[in-house]
């Protein structure tokens, strides 16, 4: 286990100004790299924060799913904007701890020289191992992980870690154009939920905003055969033919994991950018409604791929997502 501290980058990225206080000046941050489970436990136990921000910088799972890279940059991009949010009456910085970044730099670097899709999928499995052990310990400490960056392959680590911590399978709501329920052909960003479901870490799975054009009939048939798998498509939402979002939420019990693929947002720079989707404001509304009506076991904001001039869109929106969670009373 190895988590890289974000402390130095927070200091570097925070822009100070007389008469103002930015989050980067007051946030509780682990100032050292965490090398083992004991050090992780110590860092968690010494903090009274409810939420724990965890970064992961990789695009191995996306490329193992024949997708475009770029998700490796999302967490760093988020930090640049989050630390410059104003500390004011609307946000309580004491509710959050920036734990650091799950260190997968060696796997990411190795992946850049690999073109064999099967080898990329093996590396994705290696990331799973590092991911779930951290999530498990955070949930065991009765804190809520907020995971940022990387591909949607990391949903598997979130679900497995949470399930093992609670000693039960869990329910997950995913806001996503894709079900990510492809066959078990080796791990990648398109089958994390399938693996978690087949291994009994996940027992109920619902997708809000599925795109009818981009999910195979095999996946749709899997959902049709199982009452614990369900979705509402963006097409039916647009036409006013779907359940309301509140009614969709009512299909879940009180405790859920929350997955948000930024691909669901129209024109958001992502691994699978789409000209059709929800607006940023609609997604913020969904996150708020979930947060006030459910006990969210973890949050996962994934698949953002900042590319040059669009960096601010991904980083700033991720910042809005996190602060919307922190503002829930």
Radius of gyration: 18 Å
- Unreliable runs, pLDDT <50, ≥5 residues? none
Largest sheet: 10 strands, mixed
Mean pLDDT comes to 97
CATH superfamily: Ureohydrolase domain
Overall 3D form: globular
CATH topology: Arginase, Chain A
Query: Which CATH class?
Result: Alpha Beta
Derived from helix and strand composition plus strand pairing, the structural class reads: alpha/beta
Number of individual domains? 1
Portion of residues in beta strands equals 15-25%
Approximate helicity band? 40-55%
What is the N-to-C order of secondary-structure elements (H for helix, E for strand)?
EHHEHEHHEHHEHEHEHEHHEHEH
The separation of the N and C termini measures 33 Å
Describe this structure in words.
The chain is of the alpha/beta class and 329 residues long. Helix content is 40%, strand content 17%. The chain has one domain: Ureohydrolase domain (Arginase, Chain A), CATH 3.40.800. The protein has 14 helices and 10 strands. Strands 1, 2, 3, 4, 5, 6, 7, 8, 9 and 10 form a 10-stranded mixed β-sheet that branches. It is globular. The chain starts with a strand and ends with a helix. The relative contact order is 0.15.
Topology summary:
Elements: E1 3-4, H1 7-13, H2 23-26, E2 28-29, H3 37-45, E3 51-56, H4 60-63, H5 74-82, E4 96-102, H6 105-111, H7 117-140, E5 144-148, H8 155-166, E6 170-175, H9 192-198, E7 202-210, H10 217-224, E8 229-233, H11 234-239, H12 245-249, E9 255-261, H13 280-293, E10 295-302, H14 311-326
Parallel strand pairs: 2-4, 3-4, 3-5, 5-10, 6-7, 6-9, 7-8, 9-10
Antiparallel strand pairs: 1-4
């Amino acid at each position: 286990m190895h988590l890289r501290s974000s402390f130095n980058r927070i200091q570097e990225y925070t822009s100070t100004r007389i008469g103002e206080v930015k989050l980067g000046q007051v946030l509780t941050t682990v100032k050292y790299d965490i090398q083992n489970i004991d050090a992780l436990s110590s860092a968690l136990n010494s903090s009274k924060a409810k939420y724990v921000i965890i970064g992961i910088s990789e695009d191995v799972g996306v490329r193992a799913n024949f997708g475009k890279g770029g998700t490796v940059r999302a967490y760093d991009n988020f930090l640049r904007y989050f630390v410059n949010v104003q500390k004011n009456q609307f946000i309580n910085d004491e509710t959050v701890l920036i734990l650091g970044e799950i260190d997968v730099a060696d796997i990411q670097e190795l992946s850049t020289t690999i073109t064999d899709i099967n080898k990329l999928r093996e590396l994705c499995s290696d990331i799973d191992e590092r991911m779930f052990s951290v999530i498990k310990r955070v949930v065991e400490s009765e804190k809520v992980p907020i995971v940022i960056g990387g591909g949607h392959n990391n949903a598997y680590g979130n679900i497995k870690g949470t399930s093992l911590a609670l000693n039960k399978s869990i329910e997950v709501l995913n806001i996503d154009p894709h079900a990510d329920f492809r066959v078990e052909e080796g791990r990648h960003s398109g089958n994390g939920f399938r693996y978690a479901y087949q291994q009994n870490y996940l027992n109920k799975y619902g997708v809000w905003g599925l795109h009818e054009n981009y999910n195979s009939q095999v996946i749709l048939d899997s959902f049709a055969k199982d009452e614990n798998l369900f979705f509402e498509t963006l097409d039916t939402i647009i036409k006013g033919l779907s359940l309301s979002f509140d009614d969709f939420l009512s299909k879940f019990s009180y405790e859920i994991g929350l997955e948000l693929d930024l691909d669901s947002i129209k024109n958001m720079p992502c691994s699978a950018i789409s000209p059709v989707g929800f607006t940023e404001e609609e997604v913020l509304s969904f996150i708020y409604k979930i947060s006030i009506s459910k006990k969210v076991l973890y949050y996962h904001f994934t698949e953002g791929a900042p590319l040059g001039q669009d960096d601010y869109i991904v980083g700033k929106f991720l910042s809005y997502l996190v602060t919307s969670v922190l503002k829930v009373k």
